[in-house]
Structures are given as C-alpha cells and as structure tokens.
Design brief:
By secondary structure, the protein is of the alpha+beta class. The protein has one domain: minor pseudopilin epsh fold, CATH 3.55.40. About 30% of the residues lie in helices and about 25% in strands. It is built from 1 helix and 8 strands. The radius of gyration is 22 Å and the shape is elongated.
C-alpha cells in the first residue's frame, strides 16, 4: 500500500494544469478586453452627461475633447482660457466650473469614426497631467439649452475586443452605444 504520489504523477498533473491554462488564457484576455471597452463606453457616457448637465445649470457651453488615438479626455467650459496649459481661477469659488481630465482603462483608445484604425500596440493613454493644450481635439460642445453643436460618433478600440461606436445626437443629447459594423478588428 502506498502513501504518496510519485514524481511522475505530480509532473503529469502540473503539465495538465499548464496546458489548460495556456488554452484558456486567450479567451480570458478577450473577455477582459471586452469589459474594458464597455467600461470606457460607460465613462464616456457619464462624462458627456456631466458636461451637458453643467452646461444647462451654468448657462454656458462645455467642450469635450480627446487626444486622438489615445485614451485621454477632458471636459471644461468652451472658452479659450480653459484650454490653455494653465487653468484660470474660478470666478465664483462657491460654484466652480467643471474642469475634468481623465483617461480610459489601460488598452482602450479613442478613434474618430471617420479615421482609420490605429496601431494596436501603441500606448493608449498619456499621463493625465502631461497633455499639452495643442494635443486636444474638440469632439463635442454641449450648449446651455441641453443640445450639442453637432452629431458625434467616436469609436472605442481595445486590443482583442470588438470596437464600440458611441454616438451623440445633437438635438436631443441622447447617447447610444453599438458594436462597430464590420467588426473593425
């Protein structure tokens, strides 16, 4: 009667565990990429909703800008002084304007719907504090009446995930999220 496993049996079980992990890793990575792109769409929708709300409450236009091909975004009033390298002090300290800079989840980047697909191996976001004012590309401007200046479509890409198109309707301020037609991978 034996009381232990042989070295061969232990090595065989370890080899099977490694084989199963190697086979399942790509599907797990793809699943996580999908959720990162979905989270980026949620981040974009909430930033647009916040900019639209502030525009209506404060009675001034708000701009949403991105760094094209990267995952950086910024929301601030649509006035030149808020889009320079130095943000001005708030006129009313009790009710400061919304000035928000951020980045999407690692591995996810913005692409204009009319631009070709970018390099999937490129860094997806710059450090939030290091984006120069010349790098911002205006994407949407929310007006005080709750509308936007124009319809906007932006693609969110992540390596290994199906790209999503986020659309903003100018007249209603409504946002929809759909998979990119044709896959786009």
């Amino acid at each position: 009667m034996r009381r232990a496993f042989t070295l061969f049996e232990v090595m065989l079980v370890m080899a099977l565990i490694v084989l199963i992990a190697a086979v399942s890793y790509p599907s797990l990575e793809s699943m996580y990429s999908y959720y990162r792109v979905q989270a980026a769409a949620d981040t974009l929708r909430s930033s647009w909703a916040e900019a639209r709300t502030h525009a209506m409450e404060e009675g001034r236009a708000y701009r949403f800008s991105i760094v094209a091909g990267k995952g950086n975004f910024r929301v601030a009033p649509d006035a030149a002084e808020y889009w320079t390298d130095e943000v001005p002090a708030a006129a009313d300290p009790n009710n400061p304007p919304l000035v928000q800079s951020g980045a999407l989840a690692k591995g996810v980047r913005f692409r204009r719907a009319d631009a070709p697909s970018g390099d999937s191996d490129a860094d997806t976001a710059l450090p939030v504090d290091s984006v120069a004012s010349s790098q911002w590309t205006p994407l949407a401007v929310f007006l005080p009446d709750g509308t936007a200046r124009e319809d906007v479509a932006i693609v969110l890409e992540g390596s290994g995930a199906r790209p999503l198109v986020v659309r903003l309707r100018a007249l209603t301020g409504g946002v929809s999220v759909r998979p990119l037609e044709g896959g786009g991978r």
